[in-house]
Amino acid sequence: MKSDNSFLILAYFLLRIISYSLLVAPAWAQDYKGAACVIFVNDKIVLVQDSLSNRLSFPGGYINREERPEQAARRETYEETGLRVTVGPQIESADQSAQFICRSYTPIPILSTQGFESRPIVYALPAPDFSVEIRQVYLDSPQSVKAESLRFPNQIKLLPDFNRYPEWQSSTILLTKYTIPINNLYKIELKIIAQLQNQLAPQADLLFRILNLTGENVVFFILAPIIWAYSGWQTGVRCVLLLITAAESSNILKIIFALPRPFHLMPELQRMEAYGFGMPSGHVLVGTAFWGYCWHSFKRLLPQQKQRTGFYLLITVLTGCGIARVYWGVHFVSDVIVGTTFALLLLTLFIRLEEQGLWHQMTSARKMPWAIGFVIIAIAAFFTPGLLSSYMGGLAIGIFLGLCIGKTQALHEKVAINKKLKSSIAGLGIVGIILLDSTGKLLVSQQANSITAMLIYFACYLLIGLWLTIGMYLLPLACNRPKPSP
């Protein structure tokens, strides 16, 4: 079994590294490892926001084998922004990256700034790396960008006077709902969203912010140690595995469908921060699956006469979450419907596994469900490299390793017997998750390299998985250990 575990761990690491560094190699015989394009319009430049570090940089990336720096700059710019460019003169470079003045073949498509964003957004949905490596593309002034929000601050400092390159200036075109092709269903849905906002905003903001929380990751991570401590490791395993499966399913489906959000077509509708593609709604998919399974697992705790009321309340809250996503302008009604459909399919699968006793058979060995989940996450990580895959992959392998430790079962059995320890363990679990997550974000904020950032997040969530399975049990049990009699 140990050799199987080692193979799974090695396979995951290889898939994660290959997914980011496939074809990447030192370029030619030069010192440059990367190449980037500086695309300017008057005094503004095109900047891309990285999905992992959440920071800004010029469009660019690693230089592949047998590729010249200017070829890499052209290719990476298209992959990250969707812009076809002519590569011009090389300018002063930094951070082992060759920088070139580039001009877009076509006017840069700009979304209106009437909505949530205060700076022009470049319409980058056709870009191959959009929503995978890139969160957003902006047209912004270098002087208005803070140094801490940049991946490579030195590159901005070395920018030349653009007046010296008038022939390399790009142009822009302002997109509106009339210039972007929209299908008839989206036209109807855009009207519904606009009417919903006109009738309810801003009075309903607080209500919809609360309803929106039912699909937030932070809520799930707070609840995970509580469920784990009070309901036992088997229910905890199933809930967290469902979370991982739902989150990765949402991530993969978004990339497969590659459909816009409402504010990509009408920017003035955006009232909340959101990135990437729209369909399905991840909030609705993950939230419906998680809360639905919690209801299935814990409804017996309610008196029989109150179970129907509780069920209707759950349906109302989940429906409210879907309406909230539409109200904020970040999802179409169809995104919510598709998210709900996939959530119900996942929920049905997990409940059927439980009713047929398959969960008990798989969890009797304690390792099998995580071996299965681990392989699924590893395969998904290969096709969808990004922040979410780093989170979910690290969490899966952390819990998998925790369940492989021989003393884990004994710790869980002690907690199941001692009810006084459960609140301490749940509280300690929440604190540990918050500290590990915050540490990961702090470390990533100091990194410019995407692969390093991905590995940091992976390691932090691996530790969170270990913390859930074994770490949060150790201190309360040690403090509660009976003192030896004199």
The mean pLDDT is 80
Structurally, how many domains make up the residues? 2
Distance between the termini: 44 Å
Q: Could you state the order of secondary-structure elements as H and E?
A: HEEEEHEEEEEHEHHHHHHHHHHHHHH
| Beta-strand share of residues | 5-15%
Spatial extent as radius of gyration: 25 Å
Largest sheet data: 7 strands, mixed
Question: Count the helices. How many?
Answer: 17
Helix content: 55-70%
Content-based structural category? alpha+beta
Counted beta strands: 10
Poorly predicted parts? 22-29
Outline: globular
Describe this structure in words.
It is a single chain. By secondary structure, this protein is α+β, with helices and mostly antiparallel strands. The chain folds into two domains: 34-181, Alpha-Beta Complex (Nucleoside Triphosphate Pyrophosphohydrolase), CATH 3.90.79; 186-480, no CATH class. Helices cover 57% and strands 11% of the residues. It has 17 helices and ten strands. The protein has helices spanning 2-21, 69-81, 153-157, 184-200, 205-212, 217-231, 233-257, 262-265, 282-298, 304-327, 333-355, 358-363, 368-383, 387-404, 408-417, 420-444, 450-479, and strands spanning 34-41, 44-50, 56-57, 60-62, 85-94, 97-104, 108-111, 121-122, 134-140, 172-175. Strands 1, 2, 3, 4, 5, 6 and 9 form a seven-stranded mixed sheet that branches. Strands 8-7-10 form a three-stranded mixed sheet, with no helix packed on it. Helix 9 packs antiparallel against helix 10. Residues 22-29 have low confidence and may be disordered.
